[in-house]
Amino acid sequence: MAAAAELKLLEKSLGLSKGNKYSAQGERQIPVLQTNNGPSLTGLTTIATHLVKQANKEHLLGSTAEEKAMVQQWLEYRVTRVDGHSNKENAHTLLKDLNSYLEDKVYLTGYNLTLADILLYYGLHRFIVQYILVAF
Amino acid sequence: MRLFVSEGAPGSLPVLVAAGRVEGRAELLISTVAPEECVVPFLTQPRLPVLQLDSGNYLFSTSAICRYFFLLSGWEPDDLTNQWLEWEATELQPALSAALHYLVIQGKKGEDVLGPLGRALTHIDHSLSRQNCPFLAGETESLADIVLWGALYPLLQDPAYLPEELGALRSWFQTLSTQEPCQRAAETVLKKQGVLALRPYLQKQPQPSPPEGRAVSNEPEEEELAVLSEEEIAAAVTAWEKGLEILPPPRPQQNPVLPVAGERNVLITSALPYVNNVPHLGNIIGCVLSADVFARYSRLRQWNTLYLCGTDEYGTATETKAMEEGLTPQEICDKYHVIHADIYHWFNISFDIFGRTTTPQQTKITQDIFQRLLTRGFILQDTVEQLRCERCARFLADRFVEGVCPFCGYEEARGDQCDKCGKLINAIELKKPQCKVCRSCPVVKSSQHLFLDLPKLEKRLEEWLGKTLPGNNWTPNARFIIRSWLRDGLKPRCITRDLKWGTPVPLEGFEDKVFYVWFDATIGYLSITANYTDQWERWWKNPEQVDLYQFMAKDNVPFHGLVFPCSALGAEDNYTLVKYLIATEYLNYEDGKFSKSRGVGVFGDMAQDTGIPADIWRFYLLYIRPEGQDSAFSWTDMLLKNNSELLNNLGNFINRAGMFVSKFFGGSVPEMLLTPDDQRLLAHITLELQHYHQLLEKVRIRDALRAILTVSRHGNQYIQVNEPWKRIKGSEADRQRAGTVTGVAVNIAALLSVMLQPYMPTVSATIQAQLQLPLPACSVLPTDFLCTLPAGHQIGTVSPLFQKLENDQIENLKQRFGGGQAKISPSLAVVETVTTAGPQQIQTLMEEVTKQGNIVRELKAQKADKNQVAAEVAQLLDLKKQLALAEGKPLETPKGKKKK
């Protein structure tokens, strides 16, 4: 799923009515959001975080310092590890790690759904469709 | 909470600095573990540093740990910081781990290490200089600064890896590095061992996959909109409202232009082209065109500017050419000087003087400098072993010997320098030397010569360089070349030659010798000025009041940065020395080099036959100017840039802005009522204009051209978002809005016409005529964006500025100039004499074959002399052979009876 499509989905689930326009930058097609009243924003997690604030749903970014840092850590994990995985073996390790992490948890930060869950889900969706049959 | 670190883990750096934020607020234990220890139970791969929280949760991302410490200290996250951290994780880290791996594990050095990081470092530098803030996310140091500083510190703490030309990055990095928490963390992690302290950790890491390399360097950095403060917006609006009033009156034209006390006096030279070569595009962009952009810019800044150039006419090459063409050297110079002058005239180069070096003034000044050096003991005499071609009966100038480079083994090294390794060669050291004219092997003979005692002048030179170089006014390649010369130690350089065509040496026993170009070509600038005004010394012996800018390709750096300064310093006559030395890298043609002999590439005199206007050539050459690294001329790319940047971006915007005024407002600029959005746009344009100025002041010509295109992109976007063509049909308020947008847009177009003037002077004049831009606004470029076309201003007739370049047109040109031809395999190249033949050449050959065939038939019909017939037949066969080669057909073997 292209980043722009993913952000569109996110907008919808956040209940943002006015759709934003996205462009893509460079080989990796990094999304860019051109805002009318400020600088442009570059990068999936940066834009996603911005959208959450725009929708006044800051709780999705975590409520305590610990949760906030955790959310950003898993967002980083999404764009570096999930998007950056290079082969099947890496993919396997990644799923195994996540599986063991989530064993005693409902959501990534514990008991509350956050943006990290949403983006990790999007990221893994494609991934699992591709690998799940061979991985498990 | 407990922080796990390990020896040599680079992530410890930012984490330790950030940890300083929570000192006294929370209890923090620090444990050091082995690099391979798996602290986080659910991760297969070891990750360090790791922060174990009191809840039992782990933070295993360096950024997240830093963020947590910052959050605990009351910091609030913002978009810009998030963006920097995401960029750090996705772009910087992969490149950085590759670089560190090369350096620490593989022991590579220099460019091999820095290569993968180039783009990332430039990105930081540009962002810092563009937003004009000392720190990444604003006026104060914050999370993004700490994380990026920590990532970069192990590498950049070695000054060799902190590129000098990235000034903004340098000062940001140095500011942070001198802060106490950073210094403490650096000592803890690197233990004064530098980057090698990371070894224990990096060894345990898998080898990083190299980041995708980018082959093409012609692509612009992605643009980002800067963050604007309220003050910046208010200042932009104030300037805009002042309009034309604040422009100074245009400078009156002086003749001759002379320095004026108390003003900025700018003296610009471009390397003197050698007279008997028709310059190719690479020569043109390397010196005259680059210098022209700067000269035009300098005049727009109202600086007192003198731009000079001329042909370099003395030397063996001229003598040889004269022999070839059956003319005297003077006649050759006269002939080719005009060819040069015409080419530069066509390219619209705005010389104040385009002179030549074969003048009495040249002799006078050169001999004067020589006498002064001689009386001060800076001239040595010695016997020189020299190559002499017995067949041509003359000593061979360095450029007339070719052979195998004694340093790198390159086969086509010239007698003075190897094009491959760039080292200077003493002609007699060449292996397998050959006379370039007759290809016979020259012999070594001895001859008396004079030398400039460079070792004796070295101290003065270094003293001067010590004052000149820190200003960062020389391009990095020039600084590098001069430094490597000094590092290798200076040797006396021979300044005389056994030739006739040159400046005579005024010394007994040297009557039949002349000065060598090493010594006297750069003096050409002085003599050319002396031919322009008898007050030439006010420019050339006036270092206090004159700023000297010299433009050249990098092979010319030693003459301008070292030899001439040494002569001038030794002559002790208060000469003006180069303050800004601007050297380009090389421009290639398609995938190879320009070659006159092989007919590959576009040469100055051919550019005008292509039907492509001079301004388009100027634009494309400047767009790909080899600034910082070699670049390549490509026909396809030229088509692309013309059609995308000029036609669709710049031309489209300016044309639309003008058309709206004509169509919707009867050619009269409408009233403008600025909304906050418009004001913000003014500030963005102002910022981009200031960026353009900053770049051109540093002579970053190619980057400044990008700034122009960015302004036009802002303009297009502005029109697109506001849709004046729809609003003009709407309510009163909508029509009002359409007027404001049109008025602002047409003023941006006016600004663009002036910014464009140094690059595309004809297009600039066309826009200004179309918009009827008031005269003062045409000749001055202020640092603020002003409303120069106020409401009520009547514009002229608007018409499109650029034409689309079509594919077949470009394909034809490619054929004609030998671009994109299949490479000739070496075995074929030996037999082949005609290597590049376009359809035109084939056509010509066919006509010649027919003509020659008719001559033969006629002679035979007349039963002419056998020998005469045979000669004509031989010529016919030769032409047929050439044609077959040109068409790529196998040769027909003569059939039937033998021809006599």
UniProtKB/TrEMBL annotation, chain A:
One of its GO terms (biological process) is positive regulation of DNA damage response, signal transduction by p53 class mediator. GO terms for molecular function: translation elongation factor activity. Residues 50-136 form the GST C-terminal domain. The keyword Protein biosynthesis applies. Keywords: Elongation factor, Protein biosynthesis. The keyword Protein biosynthesis applies. GO terms for cellular component: aminoacyl-tRNA synthetase multienzyme complex; cytoplasm; nucleus. PANTHER family: EUKARYOTIC TRANSLATION ELONGATION FACTOR 1 EPSILON-1 (PTHR44490). This is Eukaryotic translation elongation factor 1 epsilon-1. It comes from Octodon degus (Degu). The gene is Eef1e1.
UniProtKB/TrEMBL annotation, chain B:
Catalyzes the specific attachment of an amino acid to its cognate tRNA in a 2 step reaction: the amino acid (AA) is first activated by ATP to form AA-AMP and then transferred to the acceptor end of the tRNA. Plays a role in the synthesis of ribosomal RNA in the nucleolus. Its EC number is 6.1.1.10. This is Methionine--tRNA ligase, cytoplasmic. GO terms for biological process: cellular response to epidermal growth factor stimulus; cellular response to platelet-derived growth factor stimulus; methionyl-tRNA aminoacylation; positive regulation of transcription of nucleolar large rRNA by RNA polymerase I; rRNA transcription. PANTHER family: METHIONINE--TRNA LIGASE, METHIONINE--TRNA LIGASE, CYTOPLASMIC. One of its GO terms (molecular function) is ATP binding. Belongs to the class-I aminoacyl-tRNA synthetase family. InterPro entries: aa-tRNA-synth_I_CS, Anticodon_Met, Glutathione-S-Trfase_C-like, Glutathione-S-Trfase_C_sf, GST_C, MARS_N, Met-tRNA_ligase_1, Met-tRNA_synth. Residues 841-897 form the WHEP-TRS domain. Residues 201-224 are annotated as: Disordered. PROSITE patterns: AA_TRNA_LIGASE_I, GST_CTER, WHEP_TRS_1, WHEP_TRS_2. Gene3D superfamilies: 1.20.1050.10, Glutaredoxin, HUPs, Isoleucyl-tRNA Synthetase, Domain 1, Methionyl-tRNA synthetase, Zn-domain, S15/NS1, RNA-binding. It catalyses: tRNA(Met) + L-methionine + ATP = L-methionyl-tRNA(Met) + AMP + diphosphate. Residues 74-198 form the GST C-terminal domain. Its main location: cytoplasm. GO terms for cellular component: aminoacyl-tRNA synthetase multienzyme complex; cytosol; nucleolus. It is found in: Cytoplasm, Cytosol; Nucleus, Nucleolus. Keywords: Aminoacyl-tRNA synthetase, ATP-binding, Cytoplasm, Ligase, Nucleotide-binding, Nucleus, Protein biosynthesis, RNA-binding, tRNA-binding.
